[in-house]
Amino acid sequence: MTNFAHPRHYVSTFLKYALLVFASFAALVPIISCIVTAFKTGEEYASTSVMTMPRSWLYFENFTEAWKQADMGLAFFNSFIILVCVLVGSVIISAMLAFVLNRFKFPGNGLVRNLFMVATLIPGIASQVTVYQIMSSLHLVNTLHGYIILMLGTDVISIYIFLQFFENLSTSLDEAAILDGCSYFGVFFRILLPLLKPAIVTNMILKGVSTYNEYYMANLYLQTKTKYQVVSTSLYTFTGPMGNQYNYICAGVIITIIPALLIFIICQKQIYGGLAAGGVKE
Questions:
Q1: pLDDT one-digit tens code per residue, 199-245
Q2: CA–CA gap between residue 248 and residue 63 (Å, rounded)
Q3: Dihedral sign for Cα atoms in the order 223, 229, 233, 239
Q4: What is the largest CA-CA distance in the chain?
Q5: Is the predicted pLDDT of residue 51 greater than 90, yes or no?
Q6: By the 8 A CB rule, do 149 and 135 touch?
Q7: Could you give the 3-state DSSP secondary structure of residue 52?
Q8: Can you say whether residue 153 is alpha, beta or left, with left for phi > 0 and alpha for psi between -120 and 50 degrees?
Q9: Nearest to 245 by CA among 69, 53, 54, 29
Q10: 185: number of Cβ within 10 Å
């Protein structure tokens, strides 16, 4: 038995590391290609392969042109406003819905939870015609506040994340606060919400990434690009029927990655802690 176990162990170890190397290669090659392309001139990009190193790593004209032509200053400003409003609103709405569903046992509680589950099974694209008609009738198309309301929506994943955490918080906390004269709003905001920090971090990561990268709805509902440009739509300034300017696109991609990378480096301890706590149920 021992003689046969060693070859299997070596084979499994080799396959494990080979898979890790392949996954790392698949993840890093597009990023390296994007960085290399961002430092090439238009002529250099057209005459060399995507992995050929640029003649100079000090060629920053692509970055300045991408910033100016795509109006990325306005794009970052609009994206910042959208992110702040969506993250704050998503946390408050999702946490309050989870609080009601967990703490109040009313007729139809289970039905509401099941309806939320059914909502996750419906493709978002299938309801876009109806959603657009509703947004248009309310005059919310091509407005920043309308897009923020749309992105808030009903985030089912966030609701279930908060539900999981509320199940681990004893109801004795609520009862003690109510006996001391605290209202239900006081119980939620003063007692329970501060204890939901890991769930809040997890929710903000998931919602923040999806909102920052959202292109389809931003392109559909924010139609005046000179006024409502966002980060995801700004990169499409360099695409057109005559071809794509990939050296500018790659430079723009690197510019949009930098803020997210800085936030991750600064807050990585909180991010890892929130994700770890969000994935474990006591």
A1: 888 888 888 888 998 888 898 899 888 888 899 888 888 876 656 78
A2: 7
A3: positive
A4: 76
A5: no
A6: no
A7: coil
A8: left
A9: 69
A10: 9
